[in-house]
Write a structure and sequence with these properties.
The chain contains three helices and no strands. By secondary structure, it is an all-alpha fold. It starts with 9 loop residues before the first helix and ends in a 6-residue tail after the last helix.
């Protein structure tokens, strides 16, 4: 874990804590950062839509053990 000092507007932090139902400033910032990372990953996945081709269907991917024959 890294310790970081940042300066944020108090009203912004209070609003964030209320929105994410955090008990501390640290918890609020961690939740906000995780949500942003998740949102950015989702955007990357959405941009890939239609650009990948699969040779197996969902059932094959889910149930077939490729290590066996």
């Amino acid at each position: 874990m890294h310790r970081t000092t940042i300066t944020l507007p108090g009203d912004l932090v209070e609003e964030l804590m209320a929105e994410v139902d955090a008990k501390s400033k640290t918890e609020a910032v961690i939740k906000a950062v995780k949500d942003e990372i998740r949102a950015q990953k989702k955007k990357k996945i959405m941009r890939m839509a239609g650009k990948m081709e699969f040779s197996s269907n969902a059932a094959e991917l889910r149930y077939k053990d490729r290590r066996i024959g």
